[in-house]
Amino acid sequence: MTSPKTKVVVVGGGTGTYTLLRGLREYHNRIDIAAIVTMADSGGSTGRLRDAFGQLPVGDVRQALSALAPDVPGAPNLLRDLFLYRFQTGEGLAGHNFGNLFLTALTDMLGSEALAIEAAADLLRICGRVIPVTTDKVHLQAKFTSGRIVVGEHSIDEPDQDHQHDRIMELSLTPHARLSPEAKEVIHEADVVVFGPGDFYTSILANTVVEGFADALAASRAMVIFVANLMARPGQTIGMHLEDYLREFKRYVQTDPDIVIIPDAPLPTHLVRLYEAAEAVHPILYELGDTFKTVLHPATIVSHQAVSVQAGDVLARSFIRHDSAALAETIMALLHS
Fold it and tell me: pTM for the full model?
């Protein structure tokens, strides 16, 4: 008799979630994968389409769908590559992802974002599900230590030079948003919920400020795993280390993670040096006091290759990333430990 698959829910958005899902899809015969993604993106191609069409943002959905699309043995996966393709030239097209345009067109044709995601998932034959954390149209809002209030994920993620040292005091959504029924269901049924990797506030906690998220997690029997950040983010987390991240995590999620995955060695020096031009950016220190009810799990999870910026991409990107295969392997080992 075949054992039931372990139900794994990944919470996040952006390139961090893409990295983890790309690794986990290799285990789709052993686990059921559901990705809950933030609906507050407002930058780049996604922001332009959101402003033009008034639909839910598609960027994080596109990345999750692309990550879960399977490899085709002996042949390139042209459809998946097409979803990730970014136009470099063309009036009105430069900077746009084809996948973003495709999802926008599907939504226009089918009448809802949910139906568009389902149709795209079928076309890509993805190994799992991609679920918006909310179907309400919202923007992320942050109050900073300086007292300023910034609305819009892109404006929060791309601070000007005068606010590189600012830190977020409070994260919220405007207007009010409710957890989608599909997200509530998969959290309730999950065996494991993984937060991260990704930008701490704008990709991870952006999901948790949706009304009903923390309650849904509290009602779940799932083990909670947090993938620790690698570098501080200018204008958001400068000066923060693991204890600070976990205090903020509990503040929004209302629970300590059961396990925190951290690197088992210092970050590669040649990659850390790439951040020297960014004032005050620093690696995270992974020390943890006795007051935290969580287990640190060191593992070899950091990629040693510098991230190259894709042509046409105007957004700032991190140079150091988690290793997709190694991180997925670490999580799989925890599931069966």
Answer: 0.92
